[in-house]
User: What shape does this take?
Amino acid sequence: MPRVLEIQLGSAGDALDRFEAAWNRAAEGRAPKTLRLLTLENLPLLLKTLSPARFELLRVLRETGPLSIYQLAKRLGRDYKNVHTDVTQLIALGLITKIDNGVAVPWDLLRAELVL
Assistant: This one.
């Protein structure tokens, strides 16, 4: 089964509502519901977060498998420092994971829903 990360636009209040629902499920003794969801506040933030350079970085990592940041920068033909900055941001958002020999993309598919 493909590993899918849902990306959506929403407010911090939406995330708090999901947290409250999870808290209530746990308090009632029900099993937690696993969400693989990244919520960004607005479209400009989404486009900044997944800029063309960062999207290409994700695509190359997904295609090649784990790489060190140095190998990734070389493969992309980009400056190491800029790639390191992008990787750090993408790790913080859960789009990339650190592994022993570098970094990798744990997702098979990113699915974005933009509601007008």
In short: The chain is about 50% helix and 20% strand. Residues 14 and 83 are 31 Å apart (CA to CA). The mean pLDDT is 88. The domain at 4-113 is CATH 1.10.10.10 (Arc Repressor Mutant, subunit A).
